[in-house]
Amino acid sequence: MNGVVLRLRSRCSERTVLHLSAFFLASRVHCCAERSYCNTANNEVTKARVADEARKKYGNPAPTIFSKVIDKSIPADIIYEDDKCLAFRDISPQAPVHFLVIPRTPIPRFSAAEDEDAQLLGHLLVVAKNVAQKEGLVDGYRVVINDGKHGAQSVYHLHVHVLGGRQLSWPPG
């Protein structure tokens, strides 16, 4: 990829190069995940670092992959939807049941939520609980919100992970 980026730099802006670099990284991660032989597929820390660098350098460019799920321009296995949020299965599940709950409002990260967002944040958790019940997670589950680079947030659109279906270990990460 470095050779491609070096050749592009002479003709493209840094923003274009970063977007293309992220595209190539995402393609490599997706390709490896399909073939199950590459450990970069689950390297959330690397993805979080790349996303954080892009956010710092260029702000919070829209649309994110989640806004594309919301507007249905990319497919997702949506298991719940209302006027405030939607829930869908994670494309790289880390447990037998792993889904995300995202707000339709593009809040970039949990720490960026305003006091006025309290009702929406509560709604996300209620939806997470209700969908977990519908998914049969009667023995418990984990609710996770990754925030920022050190929290391993790889997509800067607030999202709640719900993981369950097996005994989860502690401490995580």
From TrEMBL:
Catalytic residues, chain numbering: 159
Molecular function GO labels: catalytic activity
UniProt cross-references to Gene3D superfamilies, sorted A to Z: HIT-like
Domain (HIT): residue spans on this chain: 65-173
Protein name (Swiss-Prot/TrEMBL): HIT domain-containing protein
Catalyzed reaction equations: adenosine 5'-phosphoramidate + H2O = NH4(+) + AMP
Originating organism: Conger conger (Conger eel)
Domain of life: Eukaryota
Motif (Histidine triad motif): 157-161
InterPro entries the UniProt entry points to: Histidine_triad_CS (IPR019808), Histidine_triad_HIT (IPR001310), HIT-like (IPR011146), HIT-like_sf (IPR036265)
Family under the similarity heading: Belongs to the HINT family.
Family annotation (CDD domains): PKCI_related
